[in-house]
Design goal:
Helix content is about 45%, strand content about 0%. It has about 70 residues and is mainly alpha-helical. The protein has a domain of about 40 residues. It is rod-shaped, with a radius of gyration of 29 Å.
């Protein structure tokens, strides 16, 4: 974490917290901080995002007329 002791950085509201419980809390906080900082270094995902996917057309336009519905099997 930093040069300060963990007890100086975190204040427990619950009374009579055991040293084991404090150590568990500090271990979880350190793991979360490590995971978060690892995620910040992860390269950005490539490919289309949701906005780009939704802006694409669903299909080509259909026009009425002779043989326009040739592929329709009904």
């Amino acid at each position: 974490m930093s040069d300060e002791q963990p007890d100086e950085l975190v204040r427990f509201v619950t009374r009579d917290v055991s040293p084991e419980e404090k150590a568990t809390v500090f271990a979880v906080i350190e793991a979360l901080l490590a995971e978060e900082s690892a995620g910040a270094r992860r390269p950005a995902a490539t490919g289309l995002d949701a906005w780009q996917k939704s802006s694409r057309g669903l299909r080509a336009a259909t026009w009425p007329g002779p043989s326009a519905w040739r592929g329709f099997t009904g």
